[in-house]
Design brief:
- A hairpin with a 5-residue loop joins strand 12 and strand 13.
- The protein is globular, with a radius of gyration of 22 Å.
- It has 2 domains: 296 residues, Vaccinia Virus protein VP39 (Rossmann fold, 3-Layer(aba) Sandwich); 143 residues, no CATH class.
- The strands form 4 sheets. A 7-stranded mixed beta sheet has the order 5-2-1-6-7-11-10, sandwiched between helices.
- The chain is an alpha/beta fold and 514 residues long.
- Helix 14 packs across helix 15.
- The chain is 35% helix and 13% strand.
- The two termini are 25 Å apart.
Length: 514
């Protein structure tokens, strides 16, 4: 069945088979579910376009990379995945995935950290207890994240999330890990994926793993209910997480992660690619620009950002520049204009744009039909040519926001895939390849032994790029590749990814995007 229903009447249909919806729930490399992240499309969707519109060795670009789905999947498939984001948390996740250490390096670093902890744990535990006794702005200062900056007290909303020894270990790891280092960056990214959630593999059970509740609400909830944090061994949880992430070998192709504005990504990606003697222009761009009005990435990730030493308020201030239709379209036009120098002559550009129907419980009138508006007001004026638009209806029960009660799944119910190109050659290539058969039984990324033999390849007839029986990092009953994008970290009942019954996210947290 083609994605034909509900197309914007003025735009031609782009009848790509929605095969990503038919894939098993665990489709994709084991790095993909490193950490939950609001508003990302599934790896299977990325594969559907990467396999059709690029070849091994091509550059595949995502200027709004989020948690790095497109660049990671590109690297898995032998392309050079380039991801850019203005959000430092998104940059960290993308960089960890496209330029990872070896499993041996990651586990060796963890062993060294354990030894250092064993030699200083008394001091850290004492510091954690003093922080718990007097949290907040007038409390006990603790060493800064990554050893950079000045000591600061532990915020009250952080203190209530952890038991004493767990907090001591978290403070130690927060201080010791340097996100500028390749190995430390990977460990820090892995920790953000286990920092919060209800299963035993998470370090704090106060909040769901998919997003952070509003800080004041967390403080009031813990005070009202008397919730007592459970002790977790941060080193043991991190080791388990690392072993899950490395269930498949790291991709042989290394990608590129960039931190900055999408409007000048072409200029910033050219130098690093040239230094590695790689193509300087992308043959495919696959991205999901920020949805109109819906996301506050700082507020939704404040606990993870605290661990990384990043201000949630600063993140929201940096990203908060297009919350209404007119400035949103201006921003996308500037982004598409800046993107053109980064595109190959036959490049295909795919923009995943969500129709936004609700904003914090209120119906809005300017968030529907955005794909048509982006084409008319942003892409066409910059000289792009239209291949078409496809509709991807999103089932509410598959969205992370289904735990929001009456607001579940109501912000965006439809994604529109706007397919454009800077040239007629690219437009024709997009149309010609729309029905190209895609191999969904792709082999796992190979790794070379010392004898040069490839290992980790699939057996004939097996479905790889599927995590198989090891399902710790994904929720049960996610039967299709377009399942809920964020709450995909651990096993167990679906309730493990939800807050206790007393919590009501729709009324308590910041504006959130499904």
């Amino acid at each position: 069945m083609q994605l034909a229903a509900g197309l914007v009447p003025d735009l031609p249909r782009f009848s790509i088979p929605p095969e990503w919806k038919e894939q098993q729930r665990l489709w994709g490399h084991s790095f993909h579910p490193m950490c939950s992240y609001l508003a990302m499309f599934p790896a299977a969707l990325a594969h559907a376009f990467i396999a059709r519109y690029s070849r091994p060795g091509d550059v595949v670009l995502d200027p709004f990379s989020g948690r790095g789905t497109t660049p990671l999947q590109a690297c898995v498939e032998g392309r050079i995945g380039v991801g850019n984001d203005l959000n430092p948390f998104a940059y960290l996740l993308t960089a960890a995935k496209v330029d990872p250490p070896t499993q041996g390096q990651a586990l060796a670093r963890l062993s060294r950290l354990r030894i250092e902890w064993s030699q200083t744990n008394g001091d850290w535990l004492s510091l954690a207890r003093r922080s718990l006794d007097a949290p907040g702005p007038n409390g006990q200062p603790v060493p800064p994240a990554g050893g950079r900056g000045e000591p600061e007290p532990v915020p009250h909303e952080v203190a209530v999330c952890f038991a004493p020894q767990t907090l001591a270990q978290v403070l130690f790891l927060r201080h010791e890990l340097n996100s500028d280092d390749q190995v430390d960056r990977f460990l820090a990214a892995a920790i953000t994926g286990i920092l919060q959630g209800s299963a035993p593999s998470y370090l704090s059970r106060v909040m769901p793993n998919s997003f952070s509740m509003a800080p004041r609400y967390v403080r009031d909830f813990v005070l009202r209910t008397g919730l007592v944090p459970v002790e977790r061994d941060a080193f043991g949880c991190l080791e388990q997480k690392l072993r899950r992430l490395y269930r498949q070998p790291a991709p042989e192709v290394r990608g590129l992660a960039l931190l900055g504005d999408a409007r000048d990504v072409a200029e910033r990606m050219r130098g690093p690619l040239r230094e590695r003697a790689l193509p300087e222009r992308a043959r495919l761009v696959l991205t999901s620009p920020p949805y109109l009005r819906v996301v506050k990435y700082g507020s939704c990730n404040w606990l993870r950002l605290w661990f990384l030493g990043i201000s949630a308020e600063a993140v929201d201030g940096t990203l908060d520049d297009a919350h209404h239709r007119a400035p949103y379209l201006t921003f996308l036009r500037e982004s598409l204009a800046g993107l053109r120098p980064a595109l190959a002559d036959d490049a295909v550009v795919v923009l995943v744009i969500g129709d936004v129907e609700m904003d914090r419980g209120r119906a809005i009138s300017d968030g529907v039909g955005l794909a048509e508006a982006v084409w008319t007001a942003a892409a066409q004026p910059e000289g792009y040519l239209l291949a078409g638009v496809a509709i991807d209806d999103i089932a509410a029960h598959r969205k992370m926001t289904r735990i929001w009660g009456s607001e579940a799944g109501r912000a965006t119910r439809t994604d529109r895939l706007l397919v454009i190109s800077p040239t007629e050659v690219g437009r024709r290539r997009a149309l010609a390849s729309v029905t190209t058969p895609i191999d969904w039984n792709s082999p796992r990324p190979s790794r070379r032994t010392s004898r040069g033999r490839s290992v980790g390849m699939r057996e004939k007839g097996s479905r790889l790029a599927i995590l198989g029986a090891h399902e710790v990092d994904v929720p049960p009953r996610r039967s299709r590749g377009d399942g809920p994008p964020g709450a995909d970290e651990e096993s167990g009942p679906r309730t493990h990814d939800q807050p206790p019954v007393e919590l009501h996210p729709a009324a308590a947290g910041p504006p959130l995007r499904p």
